[in-house]
Amino acid sequence: MHTTSYHPDVLGLPFEQLVLPQLPDYEGAVQSTLVRLRNSTHGTKAVLYLHGFNDYFFQEEMARRYQEHGYRFYALDLRKYGRSLLPHQLANNVRDLREYYADIDAALAVLRAEGCAMVILSGHSTGGLIAALYAQEGSQRHTLAALVLNSPFLAFAQGWMARHLAVPFAAAVGRLAPNLKVPGSLPIHYGASLHRQYRGEWGYDLAWKPVKVFPITMGWLRAIHTAHRRLQRGEELTLPVLVLHSDRSVRGNGWSEEYFCADGVLRVRDIETLSPRLGKRVTVTSIAGGIHDLVLSPLLVREQVYEKMFTWLTHTLG
Predict the structure, then answer these.
(1) What is the CATH number of the domain that holds 58?
(2) Residue of 15, 54, 179, 254 with fewest CB within 10 Å of its CB?
(3) Burial bucket for residue 88 (CB in 10 Å: 0-12, 13-18, 19+)
(4) CA distances for 203 relative to 75, 134, 200, 292, angstroms
(5) What is the pLDDT confidence band of residue 176, given thresholds at 50, 70 and 90?
(6) Is pTM beyond 0.90 here?
(7) What's the total number of domains in the chain?
(8) Serine aminopeptidase S33 domain location, by residue (predicted)?
(9) Residues 155, 294, 31: CA angle, nearest 5 degrees
(10) Does residue 261 lie within any of the structural domains?
């Protein structure tokens, strides 16, 4: 029913986009944007990909790899990110991660209308957190066949004091002053290691994924803190889950070549510790030399990522 409403995407054909209007919120009009790879396989297997924080979908190679393995590929720019960000909105600004459920519901409805009977929900970083929450709570969670999580954001990367004192305090402030802005805390070196204008190999829109990340709001901090607690307290997932992550992290105030071969955003040990708690059918796989967004790692590492991912999908889903 939606097929005639697609338009050429900013990535160029054969990528197309479909705007999904949503109900207005505390900032006004809201939309999300579904991107699909046209001329994909006409089978019934599909993947729906959710990007991370300070991010949007631009990973064309990943889309084509899914297509080569028989999956129809879709990606969702969530509300207030990338293609979906409207002039009156603060980037990334939500007060509860469940606000994204309507975006995912609308996207899944399109996939069903287009004949996708087996859907894998995939998410990177914050998108991985949202995917795991949706698989636990979302109204269409029963339609999902599996989760594929790329370095999911299951805990703040700060130290004990920040996580147990500063973050809960900020979350409390977020209840009273949700639009109070604070600087984003991602190191600029991670972004610099990615974009070809700096030290990286990738080209993407720096207005949608800036090297110096967008400011965050106290309401967003509260939403993440609450989501972490809710996921850890929630029921175990029953569907199969693959969690992929780097084998080590890099942090520091200065530039290091390690940003090309380690996770420069999250603490790998948090992912290793918390991922098995998601359910009884969780496979946790370490990728040597991977960066935070594993599919943006150097080529030989990316090949390991895709080999692990598609081997697992074939073994798990056939």
Answers:
(1) 3.40.50.1820
(2) 254
(3) exposed
(4) 18, 30, 9, 17
(5) confident
(6) yes
(7) 1
(8) 45-247
(9) 70
(10) yes
